[in-house]
Amino acid sequence: MILANGIFDGEGLVADCHVLPATAVGAIGGDEIRRYIATAAKSNHTSPPTATIMFKGTRLGVRPAPVVASFSARGPNPVSTEILKPDVIAPGLNILAAWPDRVGPSGVPSDKRKTEFNILSGTSMACPHVSGLAALLKAVHPDWSPAAIRSALMTTAYVVDNRGHAMLDESTGNVSSVFDYGAGHVHPEKAIDPGLVYDISDSDYVNFLCNSNYTTDTIQVITRKKADCSGAKKAGHAGNLNYPSMSAVFQQYGKKKMSTHFIRSVTNVGEANSVYKVTIKPPVGMKVTVEPQTLSFRRVGQKLNFLVRVQARAVKLSPGGSSIKSGSIVWSDGKHTVTSPLVVTMQQPLDY
């Protein structure tokens, strides 16, 4: 069997185990093979179509890598647009790992073959990679919260491939975007020593739910105790959850200028007497300011706040249309680089 990708699966090849001799080809190769079969079929069987599967062994040094798999989950966040999703990406394509010998490698009941190893793909493979990294970070930093661990993974992630170019989206062959990879591809070594982390407390999450217009009765289903929304007003809006990324959504409604702000708090987990300076890479066409532009930490564990203001001008959009631009806020002390994605979405309402 020749299993050809559809157009939306692009050129990414998933090494599925089959119960008959089979090979996978990309969408372009599949189209070529179908043309060849059609042409050969018209030749009155003088040269029938033939093919050979040739195993060429393990390929090393594949370029470009990594790429965003065609099946990888994409943003934006459908429920809370103020929170950028995905957070990060991790290895999830053609993962080689141990396999139980009581289950055939294809998973089909009639498959009686036995093997100690198998290759699988999917979020179910990326998730254990990130779970393992979280466990590693917790072992090195037992006092870190889940939010601090997530922050370390996000702010140290990378977005370039082994060619030094922006990562590609396997499904389109084009450059991937922040809604494909979030903060980027996880980088275990850097995540162990991120310099700064964006931590989140229980009350921060409650304020986020309050500002997302959930009722106290609904919030209590999650918190299992009486919910207090009195601090939500001080928090400002849902986008002020102390997340390592920032996402602004502007509904144009005929406005020429729009603005919003984000309040963030970072905790020093690097060295005492560290001074971090900010580098702003604003989304195209936006004005972004950060106050203060320098954070001076006297001790480890110290928390400091900063304010990000985003100003945007209306863009021409058709009803129901949207425009998405991305940039970043980067804090650095010369040793650590703490990067937060910044996404601005302009939307033209249908009913305006």
Q: Can you walk through the features of this model?
A:
With 352 residues, this protein is α+β, with helices and mostly antiparallel strands. The chain has a domain at 1-56. It has eight helices and 13 strands. The chain has helices spanning 27-41, 123-140, 146-155, 178-181, 188-192, 202-211, 216-223, 232-235, and strands at residues 2-4, 23-25, 95-98, 117-120, 196-197, 246-251, 257-268, 274-281, 287-291, 294-297, 303-313, 322-332, 337-347. The chain has a five-stranded mixed sheet with strand order 6-13-12-8-10, with no helix packed on it. A hairpin with a 4-residue loop joins strand 12 (322-332) and strand 13 (337-347). Helix 2 (123-140) crosses helix 3. The longest helix is centred in the middle third of the chain and has 18 residues, at 123-140. It is globular and about 80 Å long. Residues 240-344 form the Subtilisin-like protease fibronectin type-III domain. One of its GO terms (biological process) is proteolysis. Belongs to the peptidase S8 family. This is Subtilisin-like protease. InterPro entries: Peptidase_S8/S53_dom (IPR000209), Peptidase_S8/S53_dom_sf (IPR036852), Peptidase_S8_Ser-AS (IPR023828), SBT (IPR045051), Subtilisin-like_FN3 (IPR041469).
